[in-house]
Design goal:
The complex is a heterodimer of chains A (79) and B (188).
Chain A (H helix, E strand, L loop, with lengths): L1 E2 L1 H7 L4 H8 L3 H8 L7 H10 L4 H4 E2 L18
Antiparallel strand pairs in A: 1-2
Chain B lengths: L1 H12 L1 H24 L5 H26 L6 H11 L9 H28 L2 H27 L9 H22 L5
Classes of the chains: A mainly alpha (79), B mainly alpha (188).
């Protein structure tokens, strides 16, 4: 599964350890998710999405599909 | 700077505590056994050796506790295997008090192992649990294959000791854990 975890974390200037602490997992687990070696459980995926105030599909995308796009900014209208 | 990084990485990996505990176990066990088995008329030197032996065993326990406290439970598997090798209750002779002492020690170790395992399951996160599950499965599968191979050549091989089986299972569990950790880049 693809994800934007590294980008989202970098935007907030958090280290892997900071993120791991907020999610109550180990730093190594955050590293494995970021490297797309491990797909988190549904509760952990929900916790990640909630932490970044996003929906799960804004953070994760299934294999074979394009990586998740960042959500549009508030107030943005399609042409 | 590279040396500092190397030193920090070594400390963070738990390898130093593992080595301290292993050296403490082996040297402490050897010293106390030597003194205990040859102690007829104790001299101050014997007492000193006994004290050093006990201190080494305490160091081993402290290092194992540090590993558990830091959540580096995987190191406890080879440590348990090493200590199982050192455990030789058969050498205590057929004396009731020695047998009782070994039984009490064995019970204490078993309770400690169960407590550590329960702590491991409670404190580890979902990926670490998965690594241990896959590692244990690997160890069990390897043990099964080894048992079948042993059964095929049973008449030509030395008799199997239960202690060796336990050590082999623990080490193959650890090996499976390390392989899974590499696959998931868990140690990176």
């Amino acid at each position: 599964m693809k994800n934007r975890l590294r980008v989202l974390r970098a935007e907030r200037d958090w280290s892997q350890a900071d993120l791991a602490e907020q999610l109550s997992v180990s730093r190594q687990t955050v590293n494995a998710i970021e490297n797309e070696r491990y797909d988190p459980s549904l509760p952990l995926a929900f916790a990640i999405a909630k932490l970044f105030h996003l929906r799960i599909e804004d953070v994760f995308a299934p294999d074979g599909e394009p990586p998740p796009e960042p959500p549009p900014l508030p107030g943005w209208q399609p042409e | 700077m590279a040396t500092d990084l190397h030193r920090r990485t070594l400390a963070e990996s738990g390898a130093l505590w593992f080595v301290a505990s292993a050296v403490g176990s082996v040297s402490g066990g050897w010293l106390t056994e030597q003194v205990g088995r040859s102690l007829v008329n104790p001299t101050p030197r014997d007492f000193a050796a006994l004290l050093v032996g006990f201190a080494a065993i305490l160091l081993a326990g402290f290092a194992a506790w540090k590993l558990a406290r830091a959540g580096m439970y995987s190191w406890l598997l080879p440590l348990a295997a090493l200590n199982l090798l050192l455990l030789r209750p058969g050498r205590s002779g057929d004396v009731a008090t020695w047998r009782l002492e070994w039984a009490v020690m064995g019970l204490a170790w078993t309770i400690a192992a169960v407590l550590v395992f329960a702590l491991l399951l409670r404190r580890s996160d979902e990926l670490e649990r998965r690594l241990h599950l896959e590692g244990a499965f690997f160890g069990l599968a390897l043990g099964l294959v080894a048992a079948i191979v042993y059964a095929l050549f049973e008449t030509r091989l030395p008799p199997l000791r239960a202690q060796w089986v336990a050590v082999a299972l623990l080490l193959s569990w650890w090996g499976g854990f390390l392989e899974c950790a590499r696959r998931y880049r868990w140690r990176a």
